[in-house]
Amino acid sequence: MRETETEAGADSGSGADSGSTGKRPLGVGMVGYAFMGAAHSQGWRTVGRVFDLPVRPVLSAVCGRDGGAVRAAADRLGWAAAETDWRALIARDDVDLVDICTPGDSHAEIALAALEAGKHVLCEKPLANTVEEAEAMAEAAERARARGQVAMVGFNYRRVPALALARRMVAEGRLGALRHVRLTYLQDWLVDASFPLTWRLRKDRAGSGALGDLGAHIVDLAQYLVGEPVAGVSALTETFVRERPLLEGAPSGLTAEGGSRLGTVTVDDAAVFTARFPSGALASFEATRFAAGRKNALRLELNGSEGSLAFDLERLNELSFHDHTEPAASSGFRRILVTEPDHPYVEAWWPPGHGLGYEHTFVHQARDLLHAIATGARPEPSFADGLSVQRVLAAVEESAAKNSVYTPVLG
Ligand code: SOE
User: Fold this and answer.
1) According to the model, what pLDDT value does residue 97 have?
2) Strand order in 25-31's β-sheet?
3) d(CA 333, CA 46)
4) Ligand 1 atom closest to the CA of 189, numbered from 1
5) 170 CA to middle of ligand 1, Å?
6) 3-class secondary-structure state, position 392
7) Predicted pLDDT at 251
């Protein structure tokens, strides 16, 4: 960390060191505190201690339905106060930005209320559970932008330095005309058929399964890297295990045939699809929770007329690059170690070669959002970008329902 060794970072709003930097405080209120909430908290706690920020984030309050649990989470994660009603969190004077880390079924309602109340919003991916919700959110974000509010969606993998570098290299034309875009996102936590029916396996809560959870990330990354929206898709989806044990206290509506303690899985376990980009590139995507042995394997490769790029999240400090304009006898993929000060985000961290990890993407996300708020710049990814991903997810479901018929996304 070179830039701001002595600067106070994010405060927990409890008054500790508030104002010592002379920077305008910006109160953050977060809804939800499970895995993503913990990851976002890490980002908010760290961002001001690493980057030179235009405002000073303050961890004002966290919200969850269970009073005891949310208070414990507040202490553990560094939030000054706890709320049990998200409307109360939005109404707080010390909350300028609402960070939504809940399941997808509440994204739209909370985001719309927060924007209406004049707050900035960060919303976890996928933006919503349906295109209609995402459209309403994107429209509200556009109206709020005219009032100086910022709304961003949490596609954190854009903030892996190697992927931001990949975007830069594609935009610079280092790959020439893109021909192939290949992305896979593989996990294995559903291979075990006794894994219970959590909210992620229910369409009413999560919208879709591997498609929305993992597919949303790789669709966003593909559109970000190519710099264009997907034009159309042909898809297959599958639910390999259709009934799973119900969780304690699950609503009776989830019970499978005959009232057994098994419930019906209402989302996909896997989605495989091909796509076209307007410029002519062909893409393939695979998102699954059934890839035994693959824990969080996000991989991609781009092939262009002048070269190729490849990335593997398990080696996230590296980007492989093949320059096809070099003499064939000595060319080939070479490994770029993305830890140099002039690589995206890296300058604020450690000396070359020391490397970053998953959690740093949330620090970078917080940094980019705070800069957008301070400068009034359009945030990336915006709610409009989230809507664009949502349209691809819907087209994938439509195509899969018609046994893979090509389904246009762009009109
Ligand atoms: C679960 O599958 C999950 O936590 C996703 O929801 C995240 O977005 C992804 O980054 C890791 O896996």
Assistant:
1) 98
2) 81-83, 56-63, 25-31, 97-100, 120-124, 151-154
3) 35
4) 2
5) 26
6) helix
7) 72
For the Cβ of 35 lying below 6 angstroms from any atom of ligand 1, the answer is yes
**Whether the bond into 381 is cis, omega within 30 of 0:** yes
**Structural domains in the chain plus CATH codes:** 5-157 (3.40.50.720), 161-315+317-356 (3.30.360.10)
Which of 24, 21, 18, 22 has its CA nearest to residue 7? 21
What does pTM read for this prediction?
Answer: 0.94
The pairing of strands 282-288 and 178-186 is: parallel
The residues of the chain scoring below 50 in pLDDT are: 1-9, 14-18
Q: According to the model, what pLDDT value does residue 17 have?
A: 41
**Omega within 30 of 0 (cis) for the link into 126:** yes
The letter for the amino acid at 157 is Y
DSSP annotation of 100: E
Q: Using the 8-state DSSP alphabet, how is residue 212 labeled? A: I
Task: Indicate whether residue 187 lines ligand 1 (CB < 6 A).
Answer: yes
Q: What secondary structure letter does DSSP report for 246? A: P
**Ligand 1 centroid distance, CA of 156 (Å):** 10
Rounded to the nearest 10 degrees, the angle between the axes of helix 216-226 and helix 383-401 is 120
Query: Cβ(186)–Cβ(148) under 8 Å?
Result: no
- Sign of the alpha-carbon dihedral angle for 45, 51, 311, 171: positive
247: left (phi over 0), alpha (psi -120 to 50) or beta: beta
Q: Residue whose CA is closest, atom 2 of ligand 1? A: 213
**How much distance in Å is there from the Cα of 36 to the middle of ligand 1?**
8
Query: Strands 120-124 and 97-100: what pairing?
Result: parallel
Interacting residues of 120 by C-beta distance below 8 A, sequence separation 6+: 96, 97, 98, 149, 150, 151, 369, 373
Distance 306 CA to ligand 1 centre (A): 33
394 Cβ contact partners less than 8 Å away, ≥ 6 residues apart: 130, 131
CA dist., res. 232 & res. 291, Å (int):
26
Both tokens of residue 365?
């996300």
Contacts of 25 (CB under 8 A, 6+ apart): 11, 18, 19, 55, 56, 57, 58
Would you list the DSSP string of 166-196? HHHHHHTTTT-SEEEEEEEEE--TTSSTTS-
